[in-house]
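Table S2 (text version). Query chain:
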Amino acid sequence: MENLKNYVLSKKNHNLNLVYHSCSVFGIAKVKYISCLL
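Corresponding structure-token output:
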């Protein structure tokens, strides 16, 4: 039971990391795109 809880928590953290990573990559791309336009 404890293992299952840890598994779910680590999976949640993994998903959050993926979301954060894609957001930061998208943010960097947006900044680069805007600076190209200027």
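Notes on Table S2: The chain is about 95% helix and 0% strand. Helices lie at 2-37.
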